Amino acid sequence: MARFSAWSVFKNGLSGQQSWGRQWRDPEPQKQYDVVIVGAGLHGLATAYYLAKNHGVKNIAVLEKGWLGGGNAGRNTTIVRSNYFMPGNRQFYEHSLQLWENLSHDLNYNVMFSQRAHISLLHSPSAMDAAARRYNTMRLSGTPAEIWGLDQLKKAVPHLNYGPDARFPIIGAAVQQRAGTARHDAVAWGYARAADQHGVDIIQNCEVTGMGRTADKVSTIQTSRGVIKAKKVGLAVAGNTTRLWQMAGFSTLPIESHKLQAFVTEPLKPLLDQVVVFGVGGTHFYISQSDKGGMVFGGDLDWYKSYAQRGNLPIVQDVAECAVSILPCMGRVRLLRHWAGVMDMSMDGSPFICKTPLSNLYLNAGWNYGGFKASPASGWYFADLIANDRPHETIQHFTLQRFEQGVNIDERGAGPDPKLHG
């Protein structure tokens, strides 16, 4: 397959863009693979790519029950950041951001990563102190971060609600300049194309319906397109993790599936050149502007457990109130559409990249709100785990056993309640 370049784009423009070929194959499933990854979302595709590229694994399949990137990969608000505090999380997300910064070149595909800054609004002196502690820790470990006063914030984002009677008065912000957004579809397509070039079989419309196992291994995977044997199996299925876990013969996981809604408005002229976030008094809100001009935003997840991929009116009202409270100029903007993704919420708000009780079954799950930004590093470390059969030191605590050992990675400090973590 030809590499993309300025010359290839120009040359195909002369033929009316009619000469582009398929970007990845549509193969029939083989009877056996060295590694099978279940889930062709961002984490599954990234894992397959890094298995092939970094570790030289040749015989890999990625199974997807629907179409490539049709799950949570296409149902998020595309924010990328690494402003994490806890040991393990801090190093993991910084590595992920570093991968993001070179991802378009690595994949030879424009993932539209825009480092437009992530601005967390602060509303009290105690919030300023807590943010300073977090961001100083980040700086000490090599992640640039800033605390802005009100004057600097007003200069960068002049149209926030700074009034004395604002519902949530703003006194400053915690800022990560290297953070930003990317195009979720482009990331999925880029990883798929690059993995395919390394010989990975991406098999769509192939739903896993069961697993055959011996005492300590997965022996076969039953799918809607036949039975597949695999030497190693990796699960990267987000909100459907508990379903696949039960197919493997287990009962419970420290995960709950909740839905998280997101929204986009009609296109506007350039209004917001950053990602703006705030959370105070029970609220949670984040917003950015897409390249098409739509305001993309979201807030809290639904507190009840669900596998639904559709929204509901109480969250529409809650998030709309948050939007207008902080950006009053959006009061007359029309909402274009909204949707929901299924979140696999862990008990402490941090993920699992680990081995399981079965010797050839590996788990990638529990991403809460962090799944999109984590995609490159998740694939990197999950591939390393599968190839070498041991966790890298960065992810050594991302295990199921951490709850037995009292090593919770509680980033938000909200305790063992998956509904409260972000």
Give a written overview of the molecule.
- The chain has 422 residues and is an alpha/beta fold.
- The protein has helices at 6-14, 42-55, 89-101, 103-107, 125-140, 150-156, 184-197, 241-247, 313-326, 371-388, 402-405, and strands spanning 32-38, 60-63, 79-80, 118-122, 146-149, 172-176, 180-181, 201-203, 208-213, 218-223, 226-235, 255-265, 275-278, 285-289, 295-299, 335-346, 352-355, 361-365.
- The strands form three sheets. Strands 1, 2, 8, 9, 10, 11, 17 and 18 form an eight-stranded mixed sheet that branches.
- Helix 2 crosses helix 10 and helix 3 packs across helix 10.
- The longest helix is centred in the last third of the chain and has 18 residues, at 371-388.
- The two termini are 40 Å apart.
User: Rg to the nearest angstrom?
Assistant: 22 Å
Indicate the percent of residues in helices: 25-40%
What is the general shape?
globular
Beta-strand percentage range: 15-25%
Number of helices: 11
Which structural category do the helix and sheet elements fall into? Answer: alpha/beta
Low-pLDDT stretches are: none
Major β-sheet annotation: 8 strands, mixed
- Please state the average pLDDT score: 93
Q: Termini distance? A: 40 Å
How many runs of DSSP E, i.e. beta strands? Answer: 18
SSE series: HEHEEHHEHEHEEHEEEEHEEEEHEEEHH
